[in-house]
């Protein structure tokens, strides 16, 4: 049997990825992934089709989700692994976040309108294959398709981040709630790409302390969002806090930023992998 290759963070077109779940799973299998977690933002409806495709390709599918959270002034992402996608608390919590996304999108479009970009709400929805899940990436792809900006990375920089015309502040789920829903559904809460949060090291320690106290059990150490220099840093923080380590590409679309699915280095040896006690892994 070939070596296990875990990719525990990726997106389908149920959120802001481009590939339908079955195609994403096929790509993962083709890239040598043996255990894949689909972790769409705030929506679990891709897990059914992904599960069928995983069975076809002979790989293991882990039920996942990536929950948007506000923690003070910061937006955080909490990945839930091994969740029960039918758990009523989780289902209701995610539905609430999706409603908030719709409201934010309408405000974003008003702001962009004032900046001279017309009809962006309709445009963004045209780029959202799942009309229940609208996000900044759909606006970004609309602006690129309109020829207004050359690529999504530049759209974010010029329009969609704090201080730019299309940015709208938003209240996401509370950290305690997101971790609570994940745990209630039998899952494991993992702090996604900690290296991406714009906070000093003291604040990061405070976050890890609070996250663990609330029932969080892991952090992403090797992710497409970290530089190789950040791997040992977060491996050490995981060890210091007694947290497990996760590994995932955060793949969204072929040729669109970050790393391809299944193409990440191994976790540093000092890490205890989040999958260390998963059955059959
Ligand atoms: P949202 O959850 O709707 O606020 O959108 C966040 C998503 O936008 C992330 O999950 C990424 O997929 C994407 N994103 C955020 N920042 C950037 C960036 N600077 N460049 C490209 N994509 C980004
Ligand atoms: Mn995304
Ligand atoms: Mn994220
Ligand atoms: Mn992600």
Can you characterise this structure?
Helices cover 39% and strands 15% of the residues. The protein contains nine helices and eight strands. Strands 1, 2, 3, 4, 5, 6, 7 and 8 form an eight-stranded mixed sheet that branches. α1 runs parallel beside α2 and α4 packs across α5 (136-145). 46% of the residues are buried. The model has no long low-confidence stretch (mean pLDDT 97). The structure holds adenosine monophosphate and manganese (II) ion (MN) (3 copies). Residues 11, 16, 41, 137, 252 line the site of one manganese (II) ion.
Order of helices and strands: EHEHEEHHHHEHEHEHE
| Number of extended strands | 8
Mean pLDDT value: 97
Structural Rg: 18 Å
**Main sheet?**
8 strands, mixed
Task: State the low-pLDDT regions, or none.
Answer: none
The helicity comes to 25-40%
Tell me the β content.
Answer: 15-25%
Provide the structure class: alpha/beta
Span between termini: 12 Å
Number of helices: 9
Shape, per Cα inertia axes: globular
Bound molecules: adenosine monophosphate, manganese (II) ion
Main attributes of the structure:
281 residues; alpha/beta; eight-stranded mixed beta sheet; 9 helices; globular; binds adenosine monophosphate; binds manganese (II) ion
Summarize the structure.
Strands 1, 2, 3, 4, 5, 6, 7 and 8 form an 8-stranded mixed beta sheet that branches. The protein is of the alpha/beta class and 281 residues long. 39% of the residues lie in helices and 15% in strands.
Topology:
Layout: E1 6-7, H1 21-30, E2 35-38, H2 47-57, E3 60-71, E4 74-81, H3 88-114, H4 120-126, H5 136-145, H6 152-160, E5 173-174, H7 175-184, E6 188-191, H8 201-213, E7 218-223, H9 230-241, E8 244-248
The chain binds adenosine monophosphate (AMP) and manganese (II) ion (3 copies).
């Amino acid at each position: 049997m070939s070596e296990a290759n875990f990719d525990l963070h990726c997106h389908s077109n149920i959120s802001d990825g481009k590939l339908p779940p079955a195609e994403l799973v096929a790509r993962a299998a083709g890239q040598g992934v043996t255990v894949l977690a689909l972790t769409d933002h705030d929506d679990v409806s891709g897990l059914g089709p992904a599960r069928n495709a995983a069975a076809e390709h002979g790989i293991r599918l882990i039920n996942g989700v990536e929950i948007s959270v506000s923690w003070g002034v910061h937006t955080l992402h909490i990945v839930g692994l091994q969740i029960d996608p039918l758990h009523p608390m989780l289902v209701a919590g995610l539905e609430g976040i999706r409603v908030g996304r719709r409201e934010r999108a309408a405000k974003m479009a008003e702001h962009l309108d004032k900046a001279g970009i017309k009809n962006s709400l309709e445009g963004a929805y045209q780029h959202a294959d799942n009309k229940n899940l609208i996000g900044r990436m759909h606006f970004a792809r609309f602006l690129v398709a309109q020829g207004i900006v050359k690529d999504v990375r530049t759209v974010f920089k010029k329009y969609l981040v704090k201080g730019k015309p299309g940015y709208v502040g938003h209240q996401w789920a509370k950290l305690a709630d997101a971790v609570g829903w994940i745990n209630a559904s039998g899952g494991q809460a993992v702090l996604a790409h900690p290296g991406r949060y714009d906070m000093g090291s003291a604040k990061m320690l405070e976050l890890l302390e609070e996250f663990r106290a609330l029932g969080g059990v892991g952090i992403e150490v090797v992710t497409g969002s970290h530089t190789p220099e950040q791997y040992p840093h977060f491996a050490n923080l995981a060890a210091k806090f007694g947290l497990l380590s996760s590994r995932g590409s955060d793949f969204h679309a072929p040729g669109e930023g970050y790393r391809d699915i299944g193409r990440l280095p191994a976790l540093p040896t000092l890490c205890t992998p989040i999958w260390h006690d998963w059955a059959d892994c």
